[in-house]
Amino acid sequence: MRPLKLTMNFFGPYRHEAVDFTAFDQSPMFLISGPTGAGKSTIFDGLVYALYGTASGSQREVGDFRSEFASDDDETSVELTFIHRNRFYRIKRQPEQILAKKRGSGTTKRAAQVELTVYEDETDATEVKQYTKIDATNIFLADLLQLNADQFRQIVLLPQGEFRMFLNGDSNQKEAVLRNLFQTKRYERWVVQIQEHFKRARQQNIAAQQKIQMLLQQVETTENSESSPAKELEVASTTDKLARLKIQTETLSTTLDNVEVVLSKLTEENEQKQNQLAELRRIQELFEQRTSLEIEAESLQVQATKINQIKQQLQLATWAEKNRSQVLELRQLLSLIETTQRQILQAQQEDTQISERLSQAETQKNKLDEQASEQEKLAQKVFQLTALQPLYREITEINTHKKTITQQYNQQKQRLAELKDALEQNQQQRQKNKAAQQKQPDFYTQQLELEHRQQSLTNWQQTLTQLQSQQESIQQLTQKISQLEQASMDQQEVYEQSLAVYQEKKSDYAYQQILVLRRDLLPGQPCPVCGSKDHPQAEVHDVATAVATISEQMVEDADQKRQDALKQLTQSKNQLMMLHEQLDKLIEDHSTAERLFRQNLRDSAQTRQSSLDQQATLTDINSWLTVQQTTITTQQSSLRDQQVLAEQRVKQLEQLEQQQVELVAQQTVEQTNEAKLEQELLVIETQVADKQKQLPTEFKTLIELNQFLQVSQKQLDQYRQSVEANRQELNQLHQQQTANQTNQQHFAEQLKTQRERYNDSRQQLATIFDKVWPDMGFDEQLVRFAEVANTINQMAEWQTQLTTFEQQVLQNKALIRNLNAQLANYHQVPDLDAAQQEVQTVKRQLTHQQEIRAQLKSQIEQQEKIYQQVDDLNRHLTDLSELQLLSEVTRGNGSQKLGLERYVLRTFLREVLEVANQRLARLTEGRYQLTLATESGATRKNSGLELDVFDDYVGHHRSVRTLSGGESFITALALALALGEVVQQQTGAVEINALFVDEGFGSLDENSLHEAIDALMSLESQQRMIGIISHVRELQTQIPDQLKVTSTGGGESQIRYQLSAEA
User: Fold this and answer.
1) What are 580-594's pLDDT values in tens digits?
2) Which of 396, 555, 966, 1052 would disulfide-bridge 1003, Cβ 3.0–4.6 Å?
3) What confidence tier does 4 reach under pLDDT thresholds 50, 70, 90?
4) Integer Cα distance of 154 and 979 in angstroms
5) CA 34, 35, 41, 42 torsion: positive or negative?
6) pTM to 2 decimals?
7) If you classify domain 306-384+720-789 with CATH, what class do you get?
8) CATH 1.10.287 in the chain, residue ranges
């Protein structure tokens, strides 16, 4: 990854600044210089924030990036372009910030935003893909760079005070960095999988043993048996338990076979007894059936009388059904005769009504004939008057046109009067506007004067706003410094307390260890404390009661708290120093700006003419400026109103003159139209008088004529309709009279025929009824026949009763004969009690043996199942000794406390140390050489990846934590450079073409400084861009290409370049 350009907007002290890294392509090593607090480290903040969305150091947060001087309308953003693996990338990020609303007033919180664009090659010509989601962008960049933010800071960006962390960190801290760089996470996963496999196997063994014990406890035994198999199984091994369980099961199987033989005999005897009992029960049922049939035969004999009555009723109903049709025919003929008689009577009544209506119609016809002559005269008059209608219409139209012309003539006169008034008003308004134009002032001069005063006032207001903003910044910064000083005092107290606790726990722990060692001292062995081999009688203390028990973890926790408190205290003091510098700068800038502002006010003619006091405060000046602004605004508004009014007068005068011309022309046209309308009225009046003479005097208007014609025509139409209606009525009545007479003749003939048929049918029925009821009259016979006919529906039921009764009698006799034949050898009912007792005795014996068999089968099946389960579980028990040893070793629980992953990382770290020692030997003139610590620490935290340094001056190894500040810087620098090179060689996934170093050179002497620069220059030959932040003067002279950061006041900074090529 090689950065090209970093653009920062309202980011820290930068309003709109860009860092063009391509300016250093010719000599990639460059120096970033500038005063403290100017914003040098902010460049690294922008670089890391663009790539990862975080700051470059642990002391800064993303929320601190937004510029203090940014307004609500100013957006904070960072944009970075870079090339990686022959591709061009552009990423732009905006942090969460408070901005003005796009619509309306007020502010709103805008969420963080990102935009990453990927291009096809090393130019930004062809776009391939774009990301706008933060999570997706971060995942893509992490996969692209193969470094997270912490790793980037460790290898590519070495922030102020933090790039020595890897050198001095413990094994756990080094492991966390190296794990991701060399992709050894899989080894840790292997260790976890081995541990989980061991745990699962151990849990399976425990579960299997528990299940075996539970299954063996289920074996049923004989109660109160001291030598029972269950008691023997309790003390035997699993294999012995299985053998004894098998023998017990075989014994139970033999017993089961004996029980099966007894069951077979009892089952055969039970079947015989059951068969004998069933035969006796069958004989008993036959006796019971015969008795029941004899009772049924007596009941059938009682029903015989009723059955005979049903037979008689059935014969009579059958006769009635046969003759029912002739009776129905007789009744129908009687109904027809009555209907025909009613029709004859109705026809006679209708004939009388028709005769009356004919007489009335003839009378009406005579009256209409008498009116015929008058109606003819009226029709002749209507015809003559209808011919005059067009003349009436013509006169009406002429009068209507005359009325319209008269209205137009009157309107024309009115328009002429209005035009005359308008011309007079136009003349008066023109004279008034001309007089007003002569009195208006010089607007141009007044406008220039007001604009000059407004410009001066605007400049003063802007300057005053900046001064007030600086005052607020000074007050806020002063308050923040006060709060931070109090917090620093609190942190100092916390640090001192944590230091005291740490020293106390460390001392107690050491004392505790000494007691343990002294207790185990042997004669002739050197003391681990003083080295002496002579051990005089040492005072022996009880380790458990000498001091409070202190573990190594408790000491490490106390040390960590001390380090955290010291780190927070250092951060607080550094921040306090930076804030004091910012406050001094703000106060100085504010004093200078306020002095120039007051001098400008004193030199202004505008203030000399006012009552503004020269010693007035900024608040008084703000009030005076507000009053001046109000005055100028009022004057400008008044002047604009006067200008608008003058322009309106000019336009109005032009409109009035144009209006006068139009009014004169319109007046001429209207006078001509008036003369034409007056002439047309005379012609119309003459025409109306001539045509009026041709009309009759009876009807003055067309409306009166039309009303007469309408009434007369209606009267004529009604007469014609009455004549036609009378003619049609007469014809219809004559036709109805003829048809009625024909119907009466037909009904008389029909009545005669129906009476003859009725008499014949009555005679036939009388002969039939007399055979059945000879003593009754015909009407009484009809009533009796109707009663019998009502029983026809019961014939099927009676026939079923007769058939059923006959079948029951026959069946009863047959069954009795059959039963008598079967019981011929039996003279009495058999006794079943003795036979049932024998059957019950055999059944109880059989049930008892079946229960014994079921119990034996269940017990055998259970024991066979338990035997199989226990045998399977016993065969699957696993030997865990080797697996447990493998788990312990790979986890680092051995004597060396070195796990699998850390063992692999030691190999990688050796390669890193080989490369680092090449530079370190050059930087220290062969004095120092980094090595892996050979001795294991007390805990895994201090074992495996601990570093020692071999000091050639003294000839032995010591911890890297004992190096001085300058030595530590050189060693950490060599290690960081080597780490980056080895990572690229090993993985091939990480390509680092840039390195940035923030401070640290101030702790070097002159020779070490030259060596450090030479080491960095060697990287330049490997096409790596190197940027250094430092206040060291020697670096400013030795590194000609520089990026200078300068403060411009108000918390802002600017960037400029110093390039050797330009010199």
Assistant:
1) 878 888 888 888 888
2) 966
3) very high
4) 9
5) negative
6) 0.40
7) mainly alpha
8) 306-384+720-789
